[in-house]
């Protein structure tokens, strides 16, 4: 038996990687980020031949990085222990090296001169068609805009009526002597056409003629991919379809038009939902609903819901209920305008008051643009309200007008944008000792991302309300303002902030203001924490910002799911008041605002 160093062809090789500076910090950073040698250095130590293979793969990848930044003349030299990768002695040297040795990999880039764009040729481009702005002669020859110009040019052609256009991949020719890169895109525009007949496949109950009227797309208008995608989005917005896919335009017809087909898949017509909420002040709320998504074939919805609420809360006196029937008809006399009708029977037993009420409402919801909506219509309220042992009946006719402006990106978990709302509710008492009055309520919530991908969000909300035309005791108790609880100042018992009767139960007021700030921080993909501070006040007079300010603070936990975050908030009042507990707990779906 011969003694000596054993063969190590399958033994792992330990190595370090060093990068010589190129003079371009962006290039140096990208070389490290794309290096397999760096990425797998600790994860998977290689055998000798595998180390050489990694280095060769990096050498090819590094050339791609150089070219992407316009260094088409550049090169990258990689050595292992000073030996080039094609050195025939390198494999044996690595195999015979002691197992305790750490091999040294050196990466030395030579970027050379940066190329700039020379000619940008667009053979086949229709006369007068604007050139893509992202590739201009004289600019650095970065790969990203050169490659992105192809789909951008194709989209521009499709949006200008060239439904059958095609654009070839860019062909680049480099001139090392002048450091210029000439680029050419071969274009076949095809005919310029209008939109032809619009058809739908997959319909079971929906009326195709209604869908044609609903979408802002008509036979005879100039073909546009953007218009077709907008029509697809409006079809999804009806809530009837689980998917809508515009198919590629059919061959041009005899009228020189491009027929359009939408492939649809209708959702199940009926749905049953269950819901549950808990807060220490308002107690448990359990509800269920039944939904018909397409009552008469025109995307009408009918919703029947029932909920048991006020179960065991510190701000309630007994259990209540809420029974509601709601009907919605889209495109009511105008595209995008929705008619909403509702009838609701409810019983509330709160510390501030208790009531039994019949509410009948009709409203029109009309979009001004994709972000702004106005909603208006009459409400009829017939109720019996008990407060401080006095029972009164009221019949009110109201006409609320709401303007909303929402630029946020999500209903349950917004990460940027804002959500603003202003509601004016003129109220005419028909029966009951009350004066005519107007309720004004405005709110503004904003969301500021402070970390990438929505991992850290600062969320803020402000609310201001005032009742004009009557003093607070001239307004039915349920129409007054209250603060405290999850909707205003967490930590304080529901409705406890504001003027109090001698027995420390809430009176309600004629003005209110509240402010909240949260920091929503993801810890993992599914877990997050949310510290928060709320403040608010209610005054008997009509002017906001004149009551006694109360502040609550707390921290929340979030479990993020596919349908939104599950929220658990714990809050305490910083100044404990009569009728308020030492802490409050809130559990629900979605963020607090």
Question: What labels would you give this structure?
Answer:
about 600 residues; mainly beta; Ubiquitin-like (UB roll); 4 domains; 18-stranded antiparallel β-sheet; four-stranded mixed β-sheet; about 15% helix; about 45% strand; globular; D15-like
Strand-helix topology:
Elements (H helix, E strand, L loop, with lengths): L13 E6 L5 H9 L2 H4 L8 H21 L6 E6 L2 E2 L5 H7 L5 E9 L5 E6 L21 H17 L6 E2 L3 E5 L4 E5 L2 E2 L5 E8 L6 H7 L10 H12 L4 E6 L10 E10 L3 E10 L3 E10 L8 E11 L8 E10 L8 E12 L4 E16 L2 E5 L2 E9 L2 E9 L2 E6 L10 E15 L5 E13 L6 E13 L42 E12 L4 E13 L10 E12 L2 E10 L10 E6 L4
Parallel strand pairs: 1-4, 5-8, 10-12
Antiparallel strand pairs: 2-3, 2-4, 6-9, 7-8, 11-12, 13-14, 13-30, 14-15, 15-16, 16-17, 17-18, 18-19, 18-20, 19-22, 20-21, 21-23, 22-23, 23-24, 24-25, 25-26, 26-27, 27-28, 28-29, 29-30
Please give the count of helices: 7
**Any idea how many domains?**
4
Rg calc: 34 Å
Mean model confidence by pLDDT: 92
Largest sheet: 18 strands, antiparallel
* Unreliable runs: 1-10
Distance between the termini: 79 Å
CATH-wise, what's the superfamily of the largest domain?
Answer: membrane protein fhac: a member of the omp85/tpsb transporter family
Helix content: 10-25%
How many E-type strands? 30
Oligomer: single chain
Shape designation: globular
CATH architecture of the largest domain: Beta Barrel
Class from helix and strand fractions: mainly beta
What is the CATH topology of the largest domain? Porin
- Provide the β-strand percentage band: 35-45%
Query: What is the C-level CATH assignment of the largest domain?
Result: Mainly Beta
């Amino acid at each position: 038996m011969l003694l000596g160093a054993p063969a190590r062809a399958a033994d792992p090789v330990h190595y370090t990687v060093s990068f010589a500076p190129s003079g371009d910090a962006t290039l140096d950073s990208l070389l490290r980020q794309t290096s397999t040698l760096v990425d797998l250095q600790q994860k998977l130590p290689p055998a000798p031949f595998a180390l050489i293979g990694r280095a060769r793969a990096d050498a090819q990848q590094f050339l791609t990085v150089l070219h992407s930044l316009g260094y088409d003349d550049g090169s990258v030299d990689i050595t292992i222990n000073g030996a080039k990768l094609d050195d025939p002695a390198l494999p044996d040297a690595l195999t015979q090296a002691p197992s305790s040795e750490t091999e040294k990999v050196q990466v030395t880039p030579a970027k050379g001169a940066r190329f700039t764009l020379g000619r940008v040729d667009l053979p086949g481009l229709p006369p007068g068609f604007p050139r893509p702005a992202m590739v201009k002669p004289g600019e650095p020859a970065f790969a990203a805009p050169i490659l992105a110009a192809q789909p951008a040019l194709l989209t521009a052609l499709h949006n200008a009526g060239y439904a059958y256009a095609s654009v070839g991949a860019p062909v680049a020719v480099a001139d090392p002597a002048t450091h210029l890169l000439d680029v050419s895109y071969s274009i076949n525009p095809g005919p310029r056409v209008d939109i032809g007949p619009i058809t739908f496949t997959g319909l079971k109950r929906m009326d195709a003629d209604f869908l044609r009227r609903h979408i802002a797309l008509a036979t005879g208008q100039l073909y546009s991919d953007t218009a077709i995608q907008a029509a697809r989005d409006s079809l999804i917005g009806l809530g009837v379809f689980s998917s809508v896919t515009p198919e590629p335009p059919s061959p041009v017809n005899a009228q020189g038009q491009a027929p359009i087909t939408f492939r649809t898949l209708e959702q199940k017509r009926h749905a049953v939902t269950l819901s549950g909420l808990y807060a220490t002040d308002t107690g448990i709320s359990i509800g269920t609903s039944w939904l018909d998504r397409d009552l008469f074939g025109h995307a009408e919805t009918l919703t029947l819901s029932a909920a048991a609420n006020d179960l065991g809360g510190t701000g309630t006196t007994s259990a209540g209920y809420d029974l509601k029937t709601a009907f919605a008809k889209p495109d009511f006399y105008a595209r995008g305008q929705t008619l909403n009708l509702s009838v609701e029977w409810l019983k509330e037993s709160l510390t501030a008051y208790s009531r039994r009420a019949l509410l009948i409402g009709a409203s029109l919801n009309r979009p001004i643009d994709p972000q702004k909506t106005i909603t208006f219509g009459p409400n009829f309220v017939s109720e019996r309200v008990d407060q401080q042992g006095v029972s009164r009946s009221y019949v009110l006719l109201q006409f609320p007008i709401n303007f909303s402006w929402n630029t946020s990106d999500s209903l349950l978990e917004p990460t940027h944008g804002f959500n603003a709302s202003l509601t004016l509710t003129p109220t005419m008492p028909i029966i009951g000792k009350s004066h005519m009055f107007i309720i004004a309520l405005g709110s503004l919530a904003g969301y500021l991302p402070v970390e990438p991908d929505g991992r850290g969000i600062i969320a803020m909300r402000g609310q201001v309300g005032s009742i004009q035309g009557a003093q607070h005791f001239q307004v039915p108790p349920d129409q007054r303002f209250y603060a405290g609880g999850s909707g205003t100042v967490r930590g304080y018992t529901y409705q406890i902030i504001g003027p109090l009767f001698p027995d420390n139960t809430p009176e309600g007021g004629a003005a209110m203001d509240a402010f909240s700030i949260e920091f929503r921080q993801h810890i993992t993909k599914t877990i997050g924490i949310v510290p928060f501070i709320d403040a608010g006040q209610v005054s008997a007079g009509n002017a906001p910002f004149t009551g006694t300010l109360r502040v609550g603070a707390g921290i929340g936990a979030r479990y993020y799911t596919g349908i939104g975050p599950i929220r658990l908030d714990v809050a305490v009042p910083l100044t404990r008041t009569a009728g308020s507990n030492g802490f409050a707990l809130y559990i629900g779906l979605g963020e607090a605002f």
